[in-house]
Amino acid sequence: MKKLLSLVAVLLSLAVRPACGQWQDVAATVVVGMAVGLDVGLTVACRNQALCHEANPIAAMFYDPRRPAYLVGASAFAVAGTVILGHELRHSRHRALRAVWWTPAAAMTVGSLIQWRSNARLIRQCGEVCR
Q1: How far apart, in Å, are the Cα atoms of 106 and each of 34, 71, 83?
Q2: Which of 65, 67, 76, 102 lies at a C-alpha separation of 20 to 30 Å from 49?
Q3: What is the mean pLDDT of the chain?
Q4: Residue 7 DSSP code
């Protein structure tokens, strides 16, 4: 977990560094996409083992155990929306908004990693209890 968080911190620090081009958007997409991918993957695994439920009411609307692609699609849409919001903030006319363009991506990354950790803990507990 510490290695993953340090990797996320390095990638976010690269994304915050000023540079020309659009590589900040690419870095934000990669970081958020990885975190959301981890969360969705373990959510599907956790739900398939009937260990947990989706605590996020918005994501719960998209999860059908027979069709996990709905959750994957909704998550991809959320990642795209987060990155677009960050891009729009970074190119805003207001200096204060330009300074915090990275916060939507950071919030989504942290939230997804917290949920991923929770799902991993539930699967580990079941592995010890369900044997």
Answers
A1: 12, 21, 10
A2: 76
A3: 75
A4: H
